[in-house]
Design goal:
Layout: E1 4-6, H1 11-23, H2 27-34, H3 38-45, H4 53-63, E2 72-74, H5 80-95, H6 102-114, H7 118-124, H8 140-152, E3 153-155, E4 159-165, H9 173-184, E5 189-193, E6 196-202, H10 204-212, H11 229-232, H12 235-249, E7 250-259, E8 262-272, H13 276-288, E9 294-296, E10 300-303, H14 306-315, H15 321-331
Antiparallel strand pairs: 1-2, 3-4, 4-6, 5-6, 7-8, 8-10, 9-10
Length: 335
């Protein structure tokens, strides 16, 4: 960092204007000569920052503009001693003295923190304080939301994030956000990341609640996460959870086979997930509901007969509009 030139108010602007006038060049051209960006030179002209000493001397020499009287020069980083003193005052105020080791620093911080009021703590660390949420009933709505989280969601220390396709699942996003609002009385935030829409809710108490239901932090597949027991033991909640799982990790498609000169097409439902407990749960719930389901390729549960796909629509249904759309496309609106 170069030394700085400190000019009297108005002098720096007048100096740079005179250089522009004498040179007949634009600010951009002068900035290139000074090896600074155009914005830097514009900031110098409006006296937002002090011009560097080398730039001032170069402009004065090249364009015959005298350095204004009263100009002072300050060395680079002249502000650091004052900043250091201010930092030292904060440490002494907070800890009483310079901590000798990390443990002493931690103890000093705790003494300072415990002396703050709740309002002062909220001002310092609003994102880490646990805020109140509504505790939802164990009903079908919560079961469906848990299915969605088990399908396309992830749980971290402070957040729950559900990632959906920005195009194919666009109409499904507000439906999921409404489920979150109804369950916890918290508004989710929605962020786009290329072709993904992330539905994010940042609440430690929501994370705590979900962990209490049996969900896990981090990698669901590695930990082979399963469905909460209370959902498994209730028929309506189990069907609602399957709907959440199928709406996120499932698909409906047309499978075509060729025999001689003819082609035969059949509607199929498929739930694909690498967690064995989730596959076994979906399989068991569908079979118990009278829907013929099969395991395929050790990673999928499929419904392959047309009448069973129709039965799934009647008994379980879809909340994701893209599945409804494809159902009507492949089965002609049969329900």
């Amino acid at each position: 960092m170069d030394d700085r030139a400190v000019l009297l108010r108005g002098k720096q602007r007048a100096f740079i204007q005179q250089c522009v006038s004498n040179s007949g060049k634009s600010l951009g051209a002068l900035a290139s000569e000074l090896h600074v960006c155009g914005r830097t030179l514009r900031d110098w002209r409006r006296e937002k920052y002090s011009i560097s000493k080398p730039a001032l001397q170069l402009l004065s020499r090249e364009y015959h503009v005298p350095i204004p009287a009263g100009t002072r020069f300050k060395r680079a980083y002249h502000h650091t001693p004052r900043a250091g003193r201010l930092g030292w005052n904060v440490i002494v105020t907070r800890y009483g003295k310079m901590p000798r080791d990390p443990l002493a620093q931690r103890q000093g911080w705790l003494r300072w923190w415990n002396n703050l009021s709740e309002a002062e703590k909220a001002d310092h660390l609003p994102q880490y304080l646990a805020r109140d949420i509504a505790i939802p009933d164990k009903d079908e709505s919560l079961a469906e939301l848990i299915g969605i989280i088990l399908g396309d969601g992830s749980v971290s220390r402070f957040q729950v994030c559900i990632s959906l396709g920005s195009e194919t699942d666009y109409a499904y996003v507000p439906i999921v956000a409404k489920l979150i609002k109804n369950a916890f009385d918290v508004n989710a935030s929605i962020y786009r990341n290329q072709n993904v829409l992330n539905i994010v809710v940042s609440r430690r108490n929501i994370v705590k609640f979900l962990l209490g239901q049996g969900l896990v932090l981090g990698d669901k597949v590695r930990q082979q996460v399963g469905v909460p027991t209370w959902i498994q033991n209730n028929k309506k909640s189990a069907l609602a959870c399957v709907r959440g799982l199928m709406d996120t990790d499932g698909c409906i498609f047309q499978e075509t086979h060729f025999y001689k000169t003819k082609s035969y097409s059949y509607p199929r439902l498929s739930f694909v997930n690498h967690s064995a407990p989730l596959r076994e749960f979906v399989f068991a719930v569908l079979r118990k509901a009278g829907i013929m389901a099969r395991f395929r390729n050790n990673r999928a549960v499929t419904v392959e007969r047309r009448e069973d796909v129709v039965k799934y629509k009647l008994i379980v249904g879809f909340s994701n509009p893209k599945h409804d759309l494809r159902y009507r496309r492949f089965l002609g609106g049969v329900a």
